[in-house]
Amino acid sequence: xxxxxxxxxxxxxxxxxxxxxxxxxxxxxxxxxxxxxxxxxxxxxxxxxxxxxxxxxxxxxxxxxxxxxxxxxxxxxxxxxxxxxxxxxxxxxxxxxxxxxxxxxxxxxxxxxxxxxxxxxxxxxxxxxxxxxxxxxxxxxxxxxxxxxxxxxxxxxxxxxxxxxxxxxxxxxxxxxxxxxxxxxxxxxxxxxxxxxxxxxxxxxxxxxxxxxxxxxxxxxxxxxxxxxxxxxxxxxxxxxxxxxxxxxxxxxxxxxxxxxxxxxxxxxxxxxxxxxxxxxxxxxxxxxxxxxxxxxxxxx
Length: 301
Description:
The chain is an alpha/beta fold. Helices cover 43% and strands 18% of the residues. It folds into two domains: 2-104 and 276-300, ATPase, nucleotide binding domain (Nucleotidyltransferase, domain 5); 117-273, Nucleotidyltransferase, domain 5.
């Protein structure tokens, strides 16, 4: 878990981290989240002279943002957790926002990170899986049912590798850090080899690494061109562990996207700027949005 105190302009005032404790079960994770938030609010009062005025929390899985419910997370093992209400009660009835972790990270990248200044952007983190956040007018679109941006489950290789979602050939089965790790560990005959090792081998010219890397880049480019055809973003922001390869990823990726574009407007493809603090910052921005909304309502009442 990562937590932060965030200023009105997105400034990171304090950051802390600790394990989720998921080995002790889903209830223990919820308790850990509530306790962590309460400690951080108290710390703000001690160090800054006043407690946090609002709270934001971003979680993985399926999130019902409207009703404040963490509906499902396979990794954390919870279902239908009324997290917004639980946090509001623990923190003294302050306003609480609940968001999706990738969309919160996208919100931060769009407002204060690599997508700043773009009215429309697409944020795609490449990690264990691949997700996406669609930014429009300073906010991130959740969709009618909370599934907007799930680019990792765009089919890029019809009839290809089975995906846990039930489809075959999904983007994340070819271009995620986990997919590259699996392919490179097999090719290298080393169970400990991962995507970072593959990137280093690409830089040194290893033919197997180059082949695996290019297959991932091509799949990713196919997915991104599908997305830009539908969404017409002003910028595409790539984050997550695979993006840490730098130009080993971005140079061939930009070339691959450029080759595939026909009538579409080619947007810049840039690395994320906020690293793994994006989710924290995004949760803080969600909290500030609640305060801004409350202020506007009072002004017009």
